[in-house]
Amino acid sequence: MTIRAAPAxxxxxxxxxxxxxxxxxxxxxxxxxxxxxxxxLIDVREPAExxxxxxxxxxxxxxxxxxxxxxxxxxEFEERFGVAKPDAGKQLVFYCLAGVRSATAVALxxxxxxxxxxxxxxSWQDWEKRGGVGGE
Length: 136
What we know:
The protein has 5 helices and 5 strands. It has helices at residues 27-33, 47-52, 74-81, 100-111, 123-129, and strands at residues 19-21, 39-43, 59-60, 91-95, 117-120. Strand 2 (39-43), helix 2 and strand 3 form a beta-alpha-beta unit.
């Protein structure tokens, strides 16, 4: 009697690639120095963390307390976060404290219709350790 293995089943789709940003190759420093209307730097930490220090030019959209943020209508987004909701065609670059929440934010942004997303995996800890200047 011959037993044949069943074909492997795949239940998940391959992860879509996002651009990874780093301090060492000056990508994040360049984003800060050369603010662009096409790129939005988003700090996904909670408001108290953001208030204690943030990368200059970043907006605060806390992913833990507001995971639905990028799925909100533009008027509700602006009412909750005090800034205009980024257009779906813009490049979004997420960061948090150490890179965990920012990776989650990338996935949530994709589900919300954003295709141009990036992740500063080193996040705030890397920025601060390498001498990045804090601001609001």
